[in-house]
């Protein structure tokens, strides 16, 4: 079992880095159910959490795990679960519950091939749209994708911070390749890690309205047991938390859920540009595929082609501004994905400039290689 | 008694909530609610330290009306949320209120595992032999042969005995009461809430609107007094034959054992691990 001292160079696999990121971000509760390729996250947290005064529990299934992390978060403790496709399917109902009750939590989905039990030990990016739309109803959610071991640390911290700040569940999409790749990384020491905590109410308990709007659109959040007795329900509720059927209250509540995320767009949208300054052809990729894409654009540059990479870290809300800029700049965009084009669909949706968008997909459980992407780049140049 | 009720009403109901409640007149849920509040009052638990979690169903609406930290969750999952709350803040008194369908159909797996785990939570299961809220379909406790909206020809499956299931699954304390025996129910709930480990109180209740009407069991009063006639104290029931127990059920404490409690065990592990580190 790897034990990483912060501030030191260590060899870690992605799943282990997620654990270190979570602990650094202040996660003190984890509930999960074993599934490949996410199991190492549970295993390492079962060792580390009690050492920092936290709690680990292996629940009877993923539905229970999701319920438990919501309960723990309501009791004031930063919480997380980790799973893969089939488990993520089971979490959807309670994920929706976390959306409507605005309970911060982080759900890691280490993607593997699907549908169903699919390809347990093979890589995939097949759950992208499910992460956005898997639970019923209109709801906002934040979906982030990691591509490296160092991402696994820093983006996990980001996931917690965004979750706490906006009171929204955050889905961290990892994949089998990122999860099991070992890389040498330097983890920042704790004092270098920016940690955001939810804002607790400062008014006297009798004045507290648990779902009242404010200038952030994010109500202050009281933990159970701190004197602010309130009601939490998955039913659409008024600002006091009680069920409502008033059309006016319903709409203003649901709109606030969306608006709070809109207000935070600039902070939530994380993308990375690689050699994009003068790019004429770009690759838009995320997760493990962006690693192959980075190599491919470098190879293309050796062929004299001005290729660049737009790496999406935030997948949802969709980083339209960054994608739009890349599409305006380039004559063609190649979108390699380990699915049949789930993000390509989003990219096409925002394509205002008629830029050629070329999908490149694999669903055979194998990685997309740099050479495959290079071939596509050469094809459009 | 009158003063007592007034105190309970003033102290524990949410007056800023838009009453009325959703229950049908005469529903046993109100009696269970009264018992729950009297038990909490009797134990002198500070309101801020009590968390009441419920699932989905008529009985689960209880959390809306009472002035504690309340959590109305998803159907069948109350115990999973309760587990998270309890583990995250063990000093809180966590009570889960569920219907029979909620606790033993969709939530059956969570129920047996909470019992096996022996986590310090009190589960109150309001058993009205049907799915009240969705309109009287058969539930895991609907008796063989009875009619429901999904068994109009008579039910062909057999029912669970919730309390016995809890005993077998490993709960520390298991009791059964009825909404007729309200005074006894207060006591059973007090005992359950004072117990270390997972405690279960199954409350036989009336849904005269959905279950009673379809099976010609009479109005609320008839159904509730029917529980008086069919209930047999546990000790007496133990001496009766299966035949004598036909159509009857036992009430009282079925099981009260002491064994390691996972919530407390984990606290020990945590403090040991913390020391190990420093
Ligand atoms: C996942 C899911 N399935 C089904 C329902 C619909 N539903 C709401 S309440 C209920 C039954 C409640 O019955 P029970 O738990 O016995 O409680 P009662 O209403 O009788 O008190 C069902 C099936 C739901 N809300 N969620
Ligand atoms: S439907 Fe049945 S359980 Fe529900 S409130 Fe009415 S009587 Fe009670």
TrEMBL record, chain A:
Give start and end of each Pyruvate flavodoxin/ferredoxin oxidoreductase pyrimidine binding domain.
Answer: 20-250
SUPFAM superfamilies this protein is in?
Thiamin diphosphate-binding fold (THDP-binding) (SSF52518), TK C-terminal domain-like (SSF52922)
Which InterPro entries does the record associate with it? PFOR_II, Pyruvate:ferred/Flavod_OxRd, Pyrv_Fd/Flavodoxin_OxRdtase_N, THDP-binding, Transketo_C/PFOR_II
CDD domains named in the record: TPP_PYR_PFOR_IOR-alpha_like
Pfam hit, one: POR_N
Keyword entries, A-Z: Oxidoreductase
User: Pyruvate:ferredoxin oxidoreductase core domain: from which residue to which, for each copy?
Assistant: 279-373
Would you tell me the protein name for this molecule? Answer: 2-oxoglutarate ferredoxin oxidoreductase subunit alpha
TrEMBL record, chain B:
Q: What keywords are assigned to this protein?
A: Oxidoreductase
Q: Which InterPro entries match?
A: 2-oxoacid:Fd_oxidoreductase (IPR051457), THDP-binding (IPR029061), TPP_enzyme_TPP-bd (IPR011766)
UniProt xrefs under CDD domains: TPP_OGFOR
Which residues are in the Thiamine pyrophosphate enzyme TPP-binding domain? 56-203
Please give the Pfam families that the UniProt record associates with this protein.
TPP_enzyme_C
Q: What top-level branch of life does the organism fall under?
A: Bacteria
Identification of the protein by name = 2-oxoglutarate ferredoxin oxidoreductase subunit beta
Q: Which organism is it from?
A: Desulfofustis limnaeus
Its taxonomic placement starts with: Bacteria, Pseudomonadati, Thermodesulfobacteriota, Desulfobulbia, Desulfobulbales
